[in-house]
# Entry
Amino acid sequence: MTTAGNATEPSVSGEPTFASGHETVIVGVDGSPPSTSALAWAARYAQATGASLRAVLAWHYPSAAGLPPVGHTPEPLRSEVEHSRFEILDKAIESACRDLPAIKVDRKVVYGHPAQALIDESRNADLLVVGSKGHGGFTGMMLGSVSTHCVHHASCPVTVVKRT
# Structure
């Protein structure tokens, strides 16, 4: 596990988010084993500190599928994809939090590249937690591209959890 940043740094608005006495932890989830480990770590942390916990899963059209549709995604397609993403989130939460039955996990599915979506979410967070690698990892890399991007660009401290 690696943590980047300083918990006393101000948020993007310039005010420490700890000032309210209620910390917010965001965790990136993609359904991979490393992201499930990150979710488990974040849940234990949130329970120990009394922080609120939000699991975020981002989706986007892969470039291999061609350009994303211009304008709005047709409602039936968007609903179907979001439903399948919430299923992935629910499965990860069930797996990661089975030993923490009292933990409340807010779920959020967003459209966009995972790295940018998590960086955007970090603007209103006290801690961002990510797995060391996701589904797209290259063998032998210590950190995946999303976790590396988050460590360098997030607006709050970042904890990178290695799969255990």
Remarks:
- Strands lie at 2-4, 24-28, 52-59, 105-111, 127-131, 158-161.
- The helical segments are 33-49, 75-96, 114-122, 145-153.
- Confidence is low (pLDDT under 50) at residues 1-20.
